[in-house]
Design a protein that fits this description.
two-stranded antiparallel ribbon
Length: 398
């Protein structure tokens, strides 16, 4: 039997796939693969593809899945009567569930303290054992009850997952917690265009009671900027780390100075992997006049910064070597130019109908001309160097 025939026969005779929700956690594959054995079938010794048998998840994994299913049933039942289900009951139920998992996997966790602090610590240590259905229900409960510390821990530890759910974005926006919104953007590799628009509009036209949490984000940038300066000037630091710290301090300086708190939050949007031109085009077409002016002004600030400080470049080593995580969320000049170009191309005709855009666009035009002239100079110098190399020949070092 040929390989193609073997595959075709196997596909035709395969059993229905098991629902993913039955096994919602990541299993220890080593234990499973170790127990697999070839099926004994004397009549098919020449088969190219050999079937295996013995697939079985471990007893601990099975027990964790059952614990998760029981927790989902209990929490779902409790949520049906919101008048009798409050924060204390939710934390008690969640802590009990996490404690049962801890006992199964034998993880040492210091859980002395209040229920809230204990739950956060347990999530940090045991988050990888929580299935998708369990996490989704916990997130919904946190949003409904306002248990923001637990929700923040879930997002920060990556338990929520790379695909940020729409319900989470909508719930967090309703709370005016700018720091949590930034966490969603930082830890989510994908956000739907409609959610991107909601987040962008939130930062372009923030409600009055959101500024207190925006100050939390501002303090985070300020703290890391001061830390970068300290590491760059501290004695005893290796020359390599000192150089990284100097680059990071310049990068954080241009990202912090001159930007208000809501614009600092926007840095996460325009430096993250969730951004694409289609999403931005969709969002720009749905902004009102005041929001569009602020967005263009934001891009203009970045262009002026990069014109004034051309020596500033991305610093990817700062987060890993110096724990300066904000460096990963500084939009590059390339991204800013692309975003501004996309907005102007798509909305140019409507922009020309409003005089409030003219001053900002004229200012941006001057900066763009300055940057363009510098690029031409660098290109001319590069061409000169290449011509000299060709004249001298490959045998000489230039």
């Amino acid at each position: 039997m040929s390989l193609l025939q073997t595959i075709t026969t196997a596909l035709a005779n395969q059993e229905p796939q098991i629902d993913q929700s039955i096994h919602p956690i990541i299993f220890n594959s080593n234990d499973i693969l170790r127990n697999l054995n070839l099926q004994i079938d004397d009549s098919n010794e020449d088969q190219t593809i050999k079937r295996v048998e013995g697939w079985k998840i471990s007893d601990i994994d099975t027990e964790i899945v059952e614990l998760g299913n029981d927790f989902v049933k209990k929490l779902t039942k409790k949520r049906k009567n919101p008048n009798l289900f409050g924060i204390e009951e939710f934390l008690r139920l969640l802590k009990s569930f996490l404690e049962k998992i801890r006992a199964k996997v034998v993880v040492l966790v210091d859980v002395d303290g209040t229920s809230l602090s204990c739950v956060c610590v347990l999530i940090e240590k045991l988050g990888l054992f929580l299935g998708r259905d369990v996490v989704g229900l916990i997130v919904e409960s946190c949003v409904d009850l306002g248990v923001w510390d637990v929700l923040e821990t879930l997002i920060r530890e990556g338990v929520v997952g790379q695909l940020v759910p729409k319900s989470l974005i909508e719930g967090v926006i309703r709370t005016n917690r700018s720091d949590l919104i930034c966490l969603c953007v930082k830890h989510g590799s994908h956000v739907q265009s409609s959610d991107f628009l909601s987040i962008l509009k939130y930062f372009l036209s923030p409600p009055k009671d959101a500024y207190s949490t925006m100050l939390v984000v501002r303090k985070e940038w300020e703290k890391e900027g001061l830390l970068a300066i300290e590491k760059a000037t501290k004695k005893g630091v290796s020359s390599q780390l000192a150089l990284v710290a100097k680059q990071a301090s310049l990068l954080l300086m241009i990202a912090y100075d001159g930007f208000d708190s809501s614009e600092l939050c926007m840095h996460y949007l325009f430096a993250s992997s969730i951004l694409d031109e289609l999403a931005l085009s969709y969002c720009a077409s749905r902004l009102d006049g005041a929001e569009m002016v602020k967005l263009i002004r934001y891009f203009g600030k970045w262009l002026r910064k990069y014109e004034r400080f051309p020596q500033v470049v991305p610093c990817p080593k700062a987060a890993s070597s110096l724990n300066l995580k904000c460096c990963d969320f500084v939009p590059s000049l390339e991204v800013i130019v692309k975003c501004l170009g996309s907005v102007l191309d798509d909305q140019f005709s409507s922009l020309m109908l409003h005089s409030e855009y003219y001053e900002e666009l004229r200012s941006i035009d001057e900066v763009v001309k300055s940057l363009t002239s510098e690029v031409r100079l660098y290109c001319s110098l590069a061409d000169l160097v290449n011509n000299v190399r060709r004249e001298v020949g490959p045998g000489d070092n230039v």
